[in-house]
Amino acid sequence: MTHRFATTGWLVLLNLLVSTLLAVAADTPGRAWSSALLRDATAWPHSELDAHIAPTPQGLRVEVVGGRKHAMVAASRLVLPEDVGRIRVRVANVGGGARWFIRLHGELRRPGENHTLHLSQAAAAAGERLFDIDPRLLQLRDQPLQLQLGVEGAPGAFAVFEEVDFLPAPKRSNRQPRTVFQPGQKDIAAVELMPNLPEPFKLVDWREKARAYDQFVFDFKAQGEFLPLVWLDDSHINLDRPTFGLPSYVATPNQARGLTNSQEGVTCMGAVLGATLVGLDKSRQEHDYVNMCEAWFNTQNGLNLVLNSQWGGTGGTFWYEMFTHIVFYALADRYPEKPRLTEIMRITADRWRQVCLELSASSGLPNFNHTSFNFRTRQAVDNGNWREPDAAAGMAWMQYAAWRKFRDTNYLAAAESSLNYLQGRQANPYYEVLLPYGTLTAARLNAELGRDYKVDRLLDWCFGISDCRGGWGILVGNWGGYDCDGLQGSIDNQGGYAFAMNTFAQAGALVPLARYDPQYARAIGKWMLNLVNSARLFYPGAMPPGHESGAPWKGDPQHLIAYEGLRYEWEGKSPCATGDPVAMKWGPKTDLGLYGSSYAGILGAIVRPTSDARILQIDCLATDFFRAPAYPTFLYYNPHSQARRVSLALGEQAVTVYDLVGKQILARKVKGKTKIFVPADSAVIAVVVPADGLVRHAGRTLLVNDIVVDYWWDGTGK
Questions:
Q1: Of 192, 432, 666, 711, which has the fewest beta carbons less than 10 angstroms from its beta carbon?
Q2: Of 386, 463, 381, 477, whose CA–CA distance to 428 is shortest?
Q3: pTM exceeding the 0.85 threshold for the entire prediction
Q4: How far is CA 408 from its chain centroid?
Q5: Best CA proximity match to 105, nearest among 113, 115, 91, 118
Q6: Could you tell me the domains of the chain?
Q7: How far is CA 655 from CA 192, 667, 713, in A?
Q8: Under 8 Å CB-to-CB from 713, ≥6 apart: which residues?
């Protein structure tokens, strides 16, 4: 899973060189770009001194010289057209095994901050290529930029750049000007770049896919290439009984069946949680897989933490060391009859709370601007390559969960100090997967305890572009005729590279937020419609042949295991379902990732179809762990330009349906099936309460039979 790690060393040095060259060129007047500059040697003064460049009749030849593995040339102070949204590149010739790249560098997003936009990083073929630019990556249209062209490869590797054209952004016919503005609703900027009606549209039965995935990957008797996937691990590292293993990718050599301590907790515990969310009791199957998850609680090495390995360490990366706890805590929530899970939760919550205290400065706020924390040395770790400040968000979620479970105010204090650290940051801290969990926690604290955290800003960060991991965020755009909006990943990695696990996890973290902050019902509903449609492209068979990396694996005819990710383009195909292993040649024989597929149960728990194919029923409670008692709560977003009615199945007891968004009763004393009205391009959050329940309010909170219905009741709808 190499996407989790930072930029290679030579790229860091290259960026330092580029920054120096830009400083030298700062006083040079800007000039309009023309492909004629590819045949003008004087146009490329800001290049690596030992790169071999030669303008030719065909274009600019860039060649790697002896003793080097790359070569780059740069033209600075270029003024691009104001409407630029696409770049067309024509490469006349490639030789010597070269892989060519093209980038833009400069003040792309904010004044005074230089960023690099990686349009293509490792293209191998000659010919014409088109690259769409996410409008969020190029916000300062009047700032001169630097164009970088180059190749990677052995000495003698070269590419001839024949033409580079800056073109207007392509029009998306299904993104019409907005005409409806639902009162009281707040927008999320990235979501407004997505279409209301994504195309082509197909709704996967995510619940059935997740249940079938569980049956497939936990089948010890499965036969065929690379099967069975599951194995029993008798190493007894942290348990006095066997545990189980699943590979993180299909056909992973170092995770062969029976090899002890090779299985990742992210993959295995995620598979147990995903199945649990779609209604399977993983404690009552062929084995008690819930009890087996205790193996990732590292006791034998003395760390007493839930880690990704059964003999794990700390100090490598915050997100790996925290996300495993989030998944484990979620299991503790769903299996309250398992006292050992609760005990482990308390032990680990105490250990993480101590970290929060040890990272605190004299101000009382912890400083999470580090790579990780080493529990043995009791020191923060900075590896010099990247930092993960959104660890504060993971800490906030874990500590608030512990407070909800154990009611120890020390946990609440740790949760709030972590969120206060996030509030004090000016730059987007998103690194991998943790930030949405802190965002949900902030919304819950506001609703449940009357706090005033800036959820707006945290959501903008969740959907925006990271400042600590350049280009990380929610993707928007049409890739090769497919709307691929709403997925989570790298926005500027060769046009975009989305990841299944991150996408599923963000959905699970943020859908419950709509219940605690209904001002975002429409935005979350629209995002989820796009995400649910786009996420099917992670799976084999969702696109025409050739749009997947490697030969199709015949062992999974139902297409239950997703590719690790989805690229904007790979080897001339757009989009392409792919991953890191095959492309980067580091081990597994396929890019099919169980570590992401295990979390498809999140969508299976959240999403149901309705009587209207484009209006989803989104369950706001399904992934809301450690919550107070609540009535069934469903978000419905209507993407159409006209109002629609959808059917609700209610059961045989009379109920009343209340809308958190409009603060009104949608239906009184109904049972069986009823229809509710959803306005055009708007959302409702329907709460199904007992028809004859005792209604009261306490301050701003509306309750029925002493269960909260609305945290933000305004005095209407009673």
A1: 192
A2: 463
A3: yes
A4: 32
A5: 115
A6: 2-168 (2.60.120), 297-470 (no CATH), 629-710 (2.60.40.1180)
A7: 35, 8, 19
A8: 663, 697, 700, 701, 702
